[in-house]
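Hey team,

Filing this mostly as a record. A colleague (T.K.) asked me to run one chain through the structure pipeline before their review meeting, and I want the input and output archived in the tracker in case anyone asks later how it was produced. No errors, nothing strange. Just documentation.

Input sequence:
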Amino acid sequence: MSEDRMSPHVLVLFGARGDLARRKLFPGLFRLFRAGLMPTDFRIIGSGRHALDSREQFLEMVRDALKRFGVDDIDHGWDEFARRVSFQASSADTADDLVEAVRRAERELGDDAERLIYLSVPPTAMKPMVEVLGRVGLAERSKIVAEKPFGSDLASARELNVLLARVFDDERVFRIDHFLGKEGVQNVLALRLANGLFASVWNRGHICYVQVDVPEELTIEGRAAFYESTGAFRDMVSTHLLQLLGFVAVEPPAGFDAKALRDAKYELFTSIRPIDPSQVVFGQYEGYRNEEGVAPDSDLETFAALRVHVDNDRWHDVPFLLRTDKAMSATRRTVTLGFRDPEQSLFDLDAIPDELVFELTDGPEIDLAVRAKRPGPELVLDRASMEVDFGRAFPDGHPLGAYEKLLLDVMAGDQTLFARADEVERLWEVCQPVLDHRPPVRPCTKGSWGPPEADELAAPREWRASEP
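Output structure:
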């Protein structure tokens, strides 16, 4: 994508001093700028409820965020980037100064300047923020990015979608799920749809289970205000994990564009059976209630594992196993497909089937784990792997971080990798039985793989990410 294809932009970032902005948004925007992928001219206006002493105070916070979260050689390009960054406090009651700051920036950039509003705010703040934007006139001709989770249940998601449709044009609403911007996730589609080797076996006749496993070593790290309002199920399952399931299980779309892919995903989501609470295990890591900002009697789940079923011809009777947690033994982003054994074999096969494994970290890999003859005089089977390392395969490639890719798509107006309103509402319908009948929250040891009941969901296999 070339920068000369994009009009100048004014980016208004609500929640500009929050965790997401510091960890992902400002580092992503700075990397795009240094790579020459931002519009030729732009302004970034950070906003939040509390005023700062000076613009320099905000720039110091941004620069510190770049240092802390992995930007190398900050001095290269910093001065030019920083002169385009400012801060203006705003709230539901006092947004006039922000409106004037936006209009002033647009006058500087010219008549073709576009406006992008990023709502990096908790779910409870989303609706009032959208209402404010409509009331003060900032919604007019703006693109808006809404962070997940989109609502907290089916009713609130519907209410939010109605409001967004009333205030913004639908083609300008971008419901962001950063997992869909990962190189490895997009490669799930590329591998299964572009290769006859896999396209012909991507069904229940050859695949016996699918695992989507996203454990994290991190605790909530001071994010109690956000996490206590969501929990693992709302924060991860209703968004990231089910969207990953969608990429694995979707029928081949008519094309790789926003309408075709999102039509195909919605059709797939309508085939997902509402989740049975008896097939869900919740847990909470020990010490969670001692985290700052957490209620001493909180029964919020930090762990969720579940079994999901897709009732269509391709996937009928294939279990989809989803798991996520904080404070686990390792941090992984793993999608695993287990293949059925041959009906007839000359060999005495072990219980571990062939597996296709996608590692969706920032350095994505694909691993095909198979049985093979161990070198030696006897014909003895053992485990072997065929790996695709994208760093080695494409040494001249220039991968983008997930937020970098999706920010670039928003500026270009490409909704392909963003969730549509009907997708969001259908996934809440799928999740609603669990919200209505919450499973008991079981204790888990920090650094473990969750409650033992979660292992029973995957039986007779283990969770792939739990293996050494």
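Quick notes for T.K.: The chain is about 35% helix and 20% strand. The chain has a mean pLDDT of 93.
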